[in-house]
Amino acid sequence: MLGHSEGGIIAPAVAAADKSVAFVVMIAGPCIRGDRLFVLQSAMTAKAYGAPDDYIARRKVFDQELYRAIVSAPSESAALDRAKSKVAQGVADKLVDANEAETLAKDDTTPWERYFLAYDPAPALARLTAPVLVLNGSLDVQVPAKENLAAARDALRNNSNATVIELRGMNHLLQDSKTGAPSEYNDIEETRSPTALKIIADWVSIHTFPAGRPAEQVK
Q1: CA angle, 51 as apex, 48 and 55 as ends, to 5°?
Q2: Are the CB atoms for 140 and 134 separated by under 8 Å?
Q3: pLDDT tens digit string along 88-140?
Q4: Model's pTM, two decimal places?
Q5: Is the separation of the CB atoms in 163 and 136 below 8 Å?
Q6: Shared-domain flag, residues 129 and 174
Q7: Is residue 142 located within the same domain as residue 78?
Q8: Contact (Cβ atoms closer than 8 angstroms) between residue 199 and residue 26
Q9: Residue 184 gets which letter from DSSP?
Q10: Which CATH number is 183's domain given?
Q11: Neighbour count for residue 33 (Cβ, 10 Å)
C-alpha cells in the first residue's frame, strides 16, 4: 500500500488491521495528531507566504484554542457553536480575515474534520510489523518534516523494517522546489522528483524480493 498525505494516514491504518499487506509507503503522510499538524501547517504556510512573525505566533495560539474547543465539544452542533465564537473573536483580533471567516467554522467542524483533528496516527504505526517507508520533503509546509519524521521514528522504533527519510529541497508533493509554498506546485514541471521515485522503486524492489538482502533500519 502506498499513500500520499491523507492517504499516508489511511495506508498504515489498513495495514495494521490486515496482516496480508506486504509493505507500506507513506509519502508526506502525517505521523502526528491532526490538531497539532494543522497548527504547524498554518504557521509554516503563513511563513512561506511571508507573514510577519508576530502574526504567525498569535495565529498559532488562536488555532490551538480553536481546535481544542472543537475536539472537546460533545456534539457537532456544539462544536460549530464554539467554532463560530472563536472565529468571531479571531476576526475582532485581526487574525482571521472576512473571507476566511465565512467558511472556517463550518469547514473545521464537519464529521471528518473533527475525526481528523482528534486522530493520532502513532498507535497504528506502532502496530505495524510489515516494512514501512516514510518520506517527507524538507520544504513540506503542509506536513512539516522535522516534527513529522521525529514522530515517525518514535512510533516505528520497534519495527526493524522501517525506513524514515527526509528528502532535501522537496515539497509536499515530493517535487524539487524553492520554498515549498503551495503556490509553487503548479509552476513546477515535474509531477514527482525522479530522485524520490527511484528511492521508492528501489525500496519496494528490495522489500518485495528480499532474498539475501539485509532489512532496512530506521535512520
Answers
A1: 130
A2: no
A3: 999 999 999 989 999 999 999 999 999 999 999 999 999 999 999 999 999 99
A4: 0.88
A5: no
A6: yes
A7: no
A8: no
A9: G
A10: 3.40.50.1820
A11: 18
